[in-house]
Amino acid sequence: MNADPALVDSVSILWARAFRVVPGRYNAVAYIINHNKNVAVQKINYRFRFADANNVYIGKREGTTFIPPAGNFAVFEPGIDIGNSIPVYTTFVFTETPVWLQVSQNKIDQLKVLVSNINLTNETTSPNLSASLKNNSLFNIPDVNVVAILYDAGGNAISASRTYISQLAPLQMSNINFTWPEPFSGVVVSKEIIPLYDIFSVKLQ
Predict the structure, then answer these.
(1) DSSP letter string over 50-97?
(2) Please, are residues 69 and 33 in contact by the beta-carbon 8 Å criterion?
(3) How far apart are CA 118 and CA 184, in angstroms?
(4) Please, are residues 179 and 138 in contact by the beta-carbon 8 Å criterion?
(5) pLDDT digits (tens, 9 = 90+) for 6-63
(6) Which end of the chain offers a freer environment for a tag, N or C, measured as fewer CB atoms within 10 Å?
(7) How distant is the alpha carbon of residue 46 from its chain centre?
(8) What pTM value is reported for the model?
């Protein structure tokens, strides 16, 4: 059921950034909040744009995502090749008007993915971040993307990565890993792991 757009608050894009993986290749992340408790978007197009230190346009990446209900989420684009340019400025926009759909509170309450046992190793060589993910519901959750964001003491994101689980079975615990080929540009003080899935793809029986 479609939600009344007049009753829905716009999402807030808190930041968008490109993180170097190796020279010439970057991962881009947009960090976003959906302020609306019981509405979500099943499919929406977006665009990242990148500019160098002189604010000269050097590239873009477009894609499609969903907007989950109620809370923080991330849009992640991997392996962006910008050649010899360095993306200093990153912007993110949704390129179409969202179609908001109602989501029942019962469904939101029942679908819980829990993160635990977060551990970062080999920070000064080739960092590895591990964690445990648990589907704390009685329903299959397909196509789970998991985004990891690492922050320094000032709360600034210094790197990000993504992994994918094709399905989390009911009450399943899954171990996940994120790896980086190079050390980070700063010291990691906190870690955030965000499980993302299209709530409309989950069928309550």
Answers:
(1) EE-TT--EEEEEEEEEEE-SSEEEEEEEEEEE-TT----EEEEEE-S-
(2) no
(3) 17
(4) no
(5) 788 999 999 999 999 988 899 999 999 999 989 999 999 999 999 999 999 999 999 9
(6) C
(7) 13
(8) 0.94
Backbone angles phi, psi at 75, to 5 degrees: -110, 130
Count of residues for the chain? 205
State both tokens at 70. Answer: 């109620």
**Cα dihedral sign for 178, 117, 157, 59?**
positive
At residue 85, what are phi and psi to the nearest 5 degrees? -75, 155
How would you class 39 by CB atoms within 10 Å of its CB: exposed for 0-12, middle for 13-18, buried for 19 or more?
Answer: buried
Which structure tokens are listed for 15?
A: 């930041």
User: Which residue's structure tokens are 């020279």?
Assistant: 23
pLDDT of residue 4: 77
What sign has the CA pseudo-torsion 167, 171, 172, 173?
Answer: positive
